[in-house]
Fold this sequence. Notes:
By secondary structure, this protein is α/β, with parallel strands linked by helices. It contains 11 helices and 12 strands. Helix content is 36%, strand content 29%. Strands 1-4-5-6-7-10-11-12 form an 8-stranded parallel beta barrel, surrounded by 7 helices. The N and C termini lie close together (12 Å).
Amino acid sequence: MILYPAIDLKGGSVVRLRQGDMDQATVYGSDPAAQAASFEADGFEWLHVVDLDGAFAGASVNAAAVEGILGRVKMPVQLGGGIRDIAGVEAWLKRGVTRVILGTAAVRDPDFVKAAAKAHPEKVAVGIDAKDGLVAVQGWAEVSDMTALELAKRFEDAGVAAIIYTDISRDGLLKGLNLEATRELAQAVSIPVIASGGLADIEDVKRLIEPENRVIAGAITGRALYDGRLDAREALAVAKGG
């Protein structure tokens, strides 16, 4: 079970939002590259980066900050936020991103996502952000009429590397992961599913490795790390079965 520390970028700074609300941003630092290096030093094997401004704008906005991260760390980076066409996918892969995350595009242009996944096997993930079970897009500003499972099923056998499932109602609130919904999704599709939204403490990590939840491939953690509620090394030891 892989733990992914999160760096969310807004105006070049490291922030965390409450339920995806850009007006409720807590700034945790002005040097994203240094934060990435700190996570790498802690022993994390992957890094999850989101260009929040890009998610709303529909194009990469915090490119300089992302490039700074890529130049500082050796661990693989998955990047989402504002990547809406094949040129954007290929540009970031060429710059050193290991995996791009497509969210809004997965709803609005599934054929593009399938084509990108076919052209770049294991390099494309689908971000499914759900509010009351329905998929939200455009930086969570709009809610569609599609369920998370319906969207996930679109990409079976498409070569998608992973699905990142976020429960918006819990994101940034430290209420605990929605393990039931994440587990149900992971059981319904063959694509690896990563849990996101609400991881609060070491107890959440322990629940992730319980037998019924081992179908979940990984989890993203943000505010719990920044607020000191989760010790990185302890969490990694638990995630590895220690």
